[in-house]
Amino acid sequence: MQMVVQFKKMKIEGIEVFYREAGDPRNPTIVLLHGFPSSSHMFRDLISLLADRYYVIAPDYPGYGNSSMPSVDDFLYTFEHLSLVIEQLINRLCIPRYILYCHDYGGPIGFRIAVRHPERVLGFVIQNAVAHEVGLGQPFDLFKALWANPSPENKAAFATLVDAEFTKKQYVYGVCKPFRISPDGYAMDQYFLDRPGNAAIQLALGYDYRHNVEQYPKWQQYLRTYKPPTLITWGKNDFIFTLAGAYALARELTCVELVLLCGGHFVLEEESCTVSELIKSFFCRVYGF
Q: For 251-270, b where at least 16 C-beta lie within 10 A, e where not — what string?
């Protein structure tokens, strides 16, 4: 049965936060946290596949997708701040407990929410997001150079990560079923990246990412202490977040299932149906839902 997806906005800290919503709020909640340079659009197929069993919320962070895009002078673009905004959205939707689905930038946002409120987290689905330095792939050389010296040269080099060629590469590199890769994904992302002022937002978050790396030991300790049931569904050909990052996450956990999928960074473009069935199977075994 096709589940209806609704498209809503909520004003938080004076800006509009867009989110996709589907399913019955009486069901267990799964919050889908997108990565760079995407938005909740990356979950467009997965949402309806999950909504028969879960209440599904997929927000766009400020500066991304259909949420407001205040300038870097008017809004503090840090992962800590983004996590607080998303936490406010969850609270105002009166969601007491939830599964966090984390992809890419969604990892630092989701782990921060979990560390602040471990009692509220039912579990995780991790898709190519890391909590160990060993998982950072080659593109992070540009991040690391920026952290070490935010010079004009290093800022210019980092800016290549928001051009159309790199955006498309994230979708097509390492794919196993190329005819399933819709150009809508990378075209949509690039549309939002190309808005005036967005490059400065991406630079601010790229520079702030160093604080995520500093937090890795804290997130690892959280995983070891609270042992959240975790399904890792990983596009095994990802060049941004490596397989070593997936294995490192799995070693921190006891209730964990690691599934390596044939695909790249945006493996949902190929395997949304597979991932939805894995989620349902895993949490049915753990919780019976």
A: ebbeebbbeebebbbbbbbb
Q: Are strands 5-12 and 15-22 parallel, antiparallel or unpaired?
A: antiparallel
Q: Is the pLDDT of residue 254 over 90?
A: yes
Sign of CA dihedral 231, 284, 279, 78: negative
pLDDT of residue 2: 60
Q: Is 265 a catalytic residue?
A: yes
Q: How wide is the angle at C-alpha 104 spanned by C-alphas 252 and 83, nearest 5°?
A: 90
Task: Answer for the pair 82, 13: CB distance below 8 angstroms, yes or no.
Answer: no
Q: What is the CATH number of domain 5-287?
A: 3.40.50.1820
For residue 165, give the H/E element and its range.
helix 164-172
**What is the value of pTM for the model shown?**
0.98
Query: Do 159 and 199 meet the contact criterion of CB atoms below 8 Å apart?
Result: yes
Every domain of the chain and the residues it spans: 5-287
Active-site residue among 41, 103, 132, 265? 265
Question: Cis before residue 37, ω within 30 degrees of 0?
Answer: yes
